[in-house]
Specification:
This protein is α/β, with parallel strands linked by helices. It contains 29 helices and 16 strands. A hairpin with a 2-residue loop joins β13 and β14. The chain is globular and about 85 Å long.
């Protein structure tokens, strides 16, 4: 392998976004030359580096091969450290070096000049001071960190977890020399064994991350000999029956005091798990809080869940470790937080209110990353209530490296986008061989090598990503004669006797050879805003308002008289709890009481109505909810318009249905933009 190919391996190993144009420009290569070098690299490393959409993708396995090869050839792994690596390296040396570090020693470690090293030290000093950690300098001993040991260890954990999100973060930490690979292997093996004894399963991501975090914390504990304390409110972890089992993970480490051990065990307890059969301490309060949270979702957000117990189990799996993370002041890293909030803002805001139930329990606020994970669980469970299509033509699986919440959300989003595809589940790569079937399509968040038609998708699908993947799937079907034939044959199969089905399939396939295009089915949007969905009356008492609001739904054949009576009864009893915005109420009951088609009607009352509790009502939204939760997104948008826009002020002069329709449409368009 020549010097250029070695340099390419160094580049590929360190980066996540390997753009072809940048490589060609920096290495003065042609496209043909690069292809030749890639072929040689793949041959030498037995790797499968692939090019897709003008980028080179490395699987984690191939990145490992690059690292091993560079180590074997004794090539310098990192010739330069980016800012995030310099900051981390500086902190690690200050926390774990046997003696205080001089400026010259830190300069050598950072691979920078003294001026740059001083700038990095100053930047780190300011950043840490805001957290209560102080970087002190002495001419005699050099630089040292002072402050609460609890805060210092939290800073170490957060720094490590942030680094591990980087493509080469794991290998950077190995190159520091503070931990050895055999130490990580020992801890990983013990964690794997712990899964069986404790009857739980860590996520793949947790099982990779935990050994590294724990190894560094053990080093810090052995380095810091002084006494230190921290308080875990309410949760007496040390006296639980599970604590000794978790503590056994660290019996190889000498000189750990009680607080060192407790802090390490809490790191394990706060790791994300996929499933567990174990009830941890004080779980009864958490279970009750989870029940209250689900009731909040059903009553305040009008959500329907096909499997309430399944949702509860998923929430408990996340909430328990989330509580430990909050008690430790360790913030889980969720790179999709901002993207998710932007895509699902109304739902996020509503769930953030409900999460207050858990915050009240522990006396601490959940960070937005935790709220987003909970929202992902809720959405995936909510969307899953959609009924499976009878004529699902293709089979697909989802591959995702991320934790349970993210992968399940992606799975359910894809299910809702492609009703004709049967999605069998979300898997990690190592689980694929265990499924025992070959799908028509694979949707994956990580590059893979397979002959199966594959789509690379982001973990959270925004509008642009949805449009793109829909187009890609459509093209993939239309360009594959067998898939097009399979799609049409599924519709016509019942029309053919069994003995001639094979011949019918072949004839359809032959017909498609002529490039005949299939038709695309379009589903009706029951919650599209039209002028027909709005009623304006001058005045109405509670009963008249209910009659006026639900009559259009009866006229359209969307509900039965029994549904109206059920809504009337419930509204009279519980109307104070059905207010969704100032002077706006939402009468509804579950679909099984008589919903024939999802529908709604907005009633506007020009002269406010006084309710029995002396509150006023100006608007009523009569809702016939969808079993598949189609109403939720629309309802959240309406809720946002009523709470955050100028619509309530503008409505005071409304005199006709058309005026109100145009006004609401204008505000909804602003949200869409």
């Amino acid at each position: 392998m020549d010097r250029l190919e070695m340099a390419l391996i160094q580049d590929f190993f360190q980066r996540d976004d390997i753009v072809i144009d940048k490589i060609l420009a920096s290495k003065l290569l042609s496209q043909v030359d690069l292809a030749t070098h890639l072929k040689e690299i793949n041959h030498t490393l037995h790797s499968k580096l692939t090019v897709e959409e003008q980028q080179i993708y490395l699987s984690e396995k191939d990145r490992e091969k690059c690292y091993r090869y560079l180590k074997k050839k004794k090539v310098t792994i990192f010739t330069y450290y980016e800012g995030k690596y310099r900051r981390a390296l500086l902190l690690l040396h200050l926390l774990l070096s046997k003696e205080d570090m001089s400026l010259a020693e830190l300069t050598d470690q950072l691979l920078v000049s003294k001026n740059t090293a001083l700038a990095e030290i100053k930047r780190l000093k300011q950043e840490l001071e805001s957290k209560g950690i102080f970087l002190k300098y002495s001419r005699k001993t050099g630089y040292a960190l002072l402050g609460s040991e609890f805060i210092i260890r939290n800073e170490l954990v957060n720094t490590l977890k942030s680094l591990l999100k980087q493509p080469s973060g794991k290998y950077f930490l190995l190159e520091t020399g503070f931990i050895k690979e055999h130490e990580l292997l020992l801890l990983k093996n013990r964690l794997t064994n712990l899964q069986q004894r404790a009857q739980l399963t860590f996520t793949e991501e947790s099982l990779e991350e935990l050994p590294i975090v724990l190894a560094f914390l053990v080093k810090r504990a052995q380095h810091h000999k002084g006494a230190w304390h921290f308080k875990v409110e309410k949760y007496d972890i040390k006296n639980t029956k599970e604590f000794p089992m978790y503590a056994e993970l660290f019996h190889h480490a000498a000189d750990l005091n009680e607080n060192d051990l407790l802090y390490l065990v809490l790191q394990v307890l706060s790791a994300t798990i996929v499933k567990t059969k174990l009830d941890l301490s004080d779980s009864e309060d958490i279970v009750k809080a989870t029940d209250r949270f689900i009731v909040f979702l059903e009553e305040e957000c009008v959500m329907q869940f096909a499997n309430r117990e399944s949702l509860k189990e998923k929430l408990l799996l996340h909430v328990r470790p989330a509580i430990y993370r909050c008690l430790l002041c360790v913030n889980i890293k969720n790179p999709l937080t901002d993207v998710f909030i932007e895509e699902y803002r109304p739902l996020y805001e509503k769930i953030n209110v409900g999460v207050g139930i858990f915050e009240e329990l522990i006396g601490r606020a959940f960070p937005k990353e935790e709220v987003v994970f909970i929202a992902m669980i809720v959405i995936s469970s909510m969307i899953h209530t959609r009924k499976a299509e009878k004529n699902q033509v293709f089979r697909a699986m989802v591959l995702c490296r991320s934790g349970m919440s993210i992968s399940k959300l992606l799975l359910e989003n894809l299910r809702s986008m492609f009703p004709k595809i049967e999605f069998v589940g979300a898997y990690a790569i190592h689980e694929v061989s265990e499924t025992g079937f070959e799908p028509d399509f694979i949707f994956t968040t990580i590059p893979i090598h397979t002959e199966i038609t594959t789509f690379l998708v982001p973990p959270v699908l925004d509008k642009e990503a949805r449009a793109k993947i829909k187009n890609q799937v459509e093209v993939a079907i239309n360009e594959d004669v067998t898939k097009k034939t399979k799609e049409l044959f599924s519709y016509l199969s019942d029309l053919f006797p069994e003995f001639c089905k094979e011949d019918a399939f072949m004839r359809i396939e032959s017909f498609y050879m002529k490039d005949e295009q299939p038709k695309i089915a379009v589903e009706e949007d029951h919650f599209l805003l039209t002028e027909e969905h709005i009623t304006v009356v001058q005045s109405a008492d509670m009963d008249k308002a209910l009659t006026e609001a639900f009559q259009p739904l009866l006229d359209r054949g969307s509900i039965t008289e029994q549904y109206v009576e059920a809504c009337r009864t419930v509204f009279h009893q519980d109307y104070p709890y059905m207010m969704i915005a100032y002077e706006c109420y939402l009468p509804h009951v579950k679909p099984e009481y008589g919903v024939l088609n999802p529908d709604y009607q907005i009633l506007f009352i020009q002269e406010k109505t006084e309710l029995p509790n002396k509150e006023s009502m100006r608007m009523m939204i009569a809702l016939a909810p969808s079993v598949e939760n189609q109403h939720v997104e629309w309802l959240l948008k309406m809720n946002q318009v009523l709470l955050e826009s100028e619509l309530p002020q503008k409505m005071t002069t409304i005199t006709s249905e058309k005026e109100l329709f145009l006004l609401i449409q204008e505000e909804l368009n602003k949200i869409a933009d």
